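Input record (Table S2, row 437):
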Amino acid sequence: MSDKTIVTLEKIVALCKRRGFVFPSAEIYSGLNGVYDFGPMGTLLKQNIKKLWLKNVKSFDEEVVLLDGSILGAPQVWTASGHVENFSDPMVDCLNCKKRFRADEFDLTKGCPFCSKKELTDVRQFKLMFETQVGAMADQTSIAYLRPETAQSIFINFKNVYSTTRVKFPFGIAQIGKAFRNEITPKQFLFRMREFEQMELEFFCKPEQTDKYFDIWVQRRKDFYISLGLTPEKIRLRPHEKDELSHYSKGCKDVEYNFPFGWKELEGIANRVDFDLSQHTKHSGKDLSVFDQETQQSFMPNVVECSVGVERLFLTLLFDAYHEDVVENETRISLKLNPKVAPITCAVLPLTKKVAESAENVYLDLKKAGYNVQYDLSGSIGKRYRRQDEVGTPVCFTFDFDSIEDQKVTARNRDTLQQERIPVDQLKNYLDNLLKE
Ligand code: GAP
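Output record (glycyl-adenosine-5'-phosphate complex):
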């Protein structure tokens, strides 16, 4: 088995389509740019990502509670947050080739990056929020926005959560949910989409604790990615320069991954200080400060934010796991995903149709116990192994003629290709060990 991996975006896109991870949205109508649907494998992978993220952010000493805010947002929220005024990208059009692109991604002095003609429009600010109308009246008073980040619903509900849960500082409010951005140029598949999901943790602390917790969360987030199995050498932390900080943040560090298209942001960790709660206090007229019993004084909580896109992590995991090697003179593609992340934990494969009934009972037993398990009877055993390798299934249990006699199956390891006989009544233990942290 010799490794000959060269991973490209094209290979990942093709694998995602071929194996039911990701489909272009509305594909039968030629699709909608920057929007994707997730197939059976992709849905399971997303579920695992979200489950592991949540388990991780809740695993520390400090309390973390959950929120599920609305997607439609009142315009006042997005005015107060600064998004109505600031959330835009510089856009330019080429009058010759009619291409539209982000002005900050190219050197405009060299002309159009696509046709080289120097027939560019002035740079205009393009608003990234999707605007819609709520109710029957279509006028200024009926405007609502699809949220471009989940964070704001946490801030506007801060007092509701604080007073109903009696959490003690410091504590976090975590949310996983859809966000929408009218990106000028959605690109690199799931890297920059127009509809995506965010996993955000807003961690509230006393002002004097903010710097300490910023450093703590940066380290925790980096450790999380290593615990998922991402290659440590492909992860780095990059502090933002002063001129790239968002309007709300005092300091920011990105967890970056070395993608085939370069080092790019996977997650942003921001010190938002008291920007959001102060802004919402000012715009709503509702005081969001908190009374500290110890000091007998009010303070405006500060916020450390950890924010990552589900699909961006999905793409990162696929790039990192993708492998090509040569097995028996054939190129084999496999996803070396951590078993906790893999959409399917095991497959049960009857060697022939003659043992199918007994094999199916093993499969049903594992399925009813709650494991993500697949049963596959079609094609040669080699082809069936390849299909499982391509979706990252860490182990296949093959049921053969001996299995009926000795009640054992052959466990075949995705990465080492080693095989061992396991008693059927030990399979759940075997899988539990595989899924253990
Ligand atoms: N609340 C802070 C915030 O939204 P951001 O840097 O704009 O900050 C946070 O986004 C994370 O959301 C990014 O690090 C990325 O993982 C993900 N993300 C942002 N825009 C995205 C897009 N258009 N498509 C996919 N993921 C995106």
